[in-house]
């Protein structure tokens, strides 16, 4: 937009935020500020006028080229909501000891909370600050985006605070924090308590004595030890602070991990990892992913049957007969293909969610019965898709970690000494160690289709 009159030219920027003045006065004709104000008023330019600049320009003789005389004020976008969580998921990474050794012993992962405890707080989004252009038109700001709480069951949201609905312990699943009901035993599981079958988490301050059974839907944490008893976690992990002191009848099973200071004469099974800090002796061990016995005193002793999905890591193996270590192994190519499939499915689902969010917003603006009915159908589907994305991302992280930590397509790593007469098997290929070896990694090479022994 450009306006020219009596040697005065006003140019307006396309976004209506700025006005520029040029002067080409006729000879012996002086342009007065009032002339400029009148022209601006006639054109509707009323805001952000720089009076001092106009006064200064009019006091200068000669031609003036494109000087700023009016400027609008841009709107300031609102700030997005910020959610602060009061608790963090326990870190399951190995810890480095003072002498440089790696200690895989991680226990005490149940975080207790009481009803009403604050789990997260949200600072709500701001609306932003309006602006205006040089014509006085209001420029509405883009409001900040709200941010939902990433919470699950057992959490109450009121205004901008998320609290525990009941006494229990925290759980993290697919990026969401939730509260699980928890049963706490102040002493031993004995005849005064009886067998336990609880649909949440169980924490035992004492021991689980011989002949008793503890079952929980989620995590089980035992401050003491497990004797010849049965402990099962159907959807979580089992943590044993003292250790498993069986005499051949102890059974420990977990959907995720089993972690104990030591394991003695027991059957132990976990879908993911089995971790021992000190030793495993005369036991049957079956892990879907890894068996880790890597504390400073981590050893395999006596006759054991050790089975793992991808890897076995141990500090030392002391055995003269009957020690069998078997790794089922994996296919790196198949894993890469699966990760590619996951990435594509996530991409497709995110595209669907973007489309669904637009439809949900439009339906929410309508008030008719049909729109409300459609909305009630779409919302559960939307939530289901977001949960599916979370699940896929978790699987992708797990597969990436598996590839990063496993040499070849299955491995057995011994940091210290391996006695002779130990039989190892990786992906069906067997190898018997006839002489002692030290600090080695045995892995299955997918190209040579054999076990390779590598000195570290």
Commentary on this structure:
With 456 residues, the protein is of the alpha/beta class. It folds into 5 domains: 2-71; 82-127 and 143-178, no CATH class; 181-271, no CATH class; 276-330 and 406-456, Pectate Lyase C-like (3 Solenoid); 332-405. Helix 3 packs antiparallel against helix 4 (369-405). It is elongated. 29% of the residues are buried.
Second CATH tier, the architecture of the largest domain: 3 Solenoid
Oligomer: single chain
Q: Remind me, CATH topology of the largest domain?
A: Pectate Lyase C-like
Helix/strand-derived class? alpha/beta
Would you identify the regions where 5 or more consecutive residues have pLDDT less than 50?
Answer: 93-108
Mean pLDDT: 86
> In percent, how much strand structure appears in the residues?
35-45%
| Number of separate strands | 38
Q: CA-to-CA gap between the ends?
A: 76 Å
Number of helices: 4
Summarize the structure.
The protein folds into five domains: 2-71; 82-127 and 143-178, no CATH class; 181-271, no CATH class; 276-330 and 406-456, Pectate Lyase C-like (3 Solenoid); 332-405. The chain is 20% helix and 40% strand. It starts with a strand and ends with a strand.
């Amino acid at each position: 937009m450009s306006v020219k009159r009596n040697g005065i030219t006003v140019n307006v920027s396309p976004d209506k935020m700025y006005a520029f003045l040029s002067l080409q006065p006729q000879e012996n004709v002086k342009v007065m500020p009032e002339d400029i104000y009148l022209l601006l008023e006639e054109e509707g330019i009323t805001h952000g006028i720089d009076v001092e600049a106009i006064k200064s320009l009019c006091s200068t003789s000669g031609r003036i080229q494109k000087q700023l005389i009016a400027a609008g004020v841009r709107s300031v976008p609102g700030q997005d909501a910020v959610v602060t969580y009061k608790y963090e998921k326990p870190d399951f990474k190995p810890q480095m000891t003072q002498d440089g050794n790696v200690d895989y012993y991680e226990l005490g992962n149940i975080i207790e909370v009481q009803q009403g405890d604050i789990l997260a707080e949200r600072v709500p989004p701001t609306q932003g600050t309006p602006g205006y252009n040089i014509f006085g038109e209001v420029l509405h700001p883009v409001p900040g985006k709200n941010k939902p709480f990433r919470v699950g069951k057992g959490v109450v949201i009121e205004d901008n605070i998320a609290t525990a609905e009941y006494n229990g312990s925290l759980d993290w699943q697919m990026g969401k924090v939730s509260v699980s009901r928890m049963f706490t035993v102040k002493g031993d599981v004995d005849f005064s308590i009886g067998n336990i079958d609880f649909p949440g988490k169980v924490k035992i301050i004492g021991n689980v004595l011989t002949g008793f059974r503890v079952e929980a839907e989620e995590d089980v944490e035992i401050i003491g030890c497990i004797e010849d008893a049965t402990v099962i976690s159907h959807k979580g992990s089992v943590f044993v602070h003292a250790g498993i002191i069986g005499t051949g009848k102890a059974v420990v099973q977990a959907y995720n991990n089993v972690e104990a200071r030591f394991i003695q004469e027991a059957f132990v099974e976990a879908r993911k990892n089995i971790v021992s800090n000190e030793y495993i002796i005369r036991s049957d061990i079956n892990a879907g992913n890894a068996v880790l016995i890597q504390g400073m005193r981590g050893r395999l002793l006596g006759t054991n049957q050790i089975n793992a999905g991808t890897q076995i890591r141990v500090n030392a193996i002391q055995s003269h007969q009957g020690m069998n270590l078997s790794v089922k192994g994996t296919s790196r190519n198949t894993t890469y293909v699966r990760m590619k499939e996951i990435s594509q499915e996530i991409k497709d689902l995110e595209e669907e969610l973007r489309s669904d969010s637009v439809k949900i917003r439009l339906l929410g603006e309508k008030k008719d019965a049909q729109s409300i009915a459609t909305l009630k159908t779409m919302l559960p589907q939307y939530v289901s898709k977001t949960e599916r994305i979370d699940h896929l991302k978790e699987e992708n992280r797990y597969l990436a970690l598996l590839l990063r930590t496993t040499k070849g397509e299955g491995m057995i790593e011994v940091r210290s000494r391996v006695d002779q007469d130990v039989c190892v098997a990786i992906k069906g290929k067997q190898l018997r160690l006839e002489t002692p070896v030290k600090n080695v990694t045995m892995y299955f090479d997918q190209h040579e289709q054999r076990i390779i022994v590598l000195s570290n």
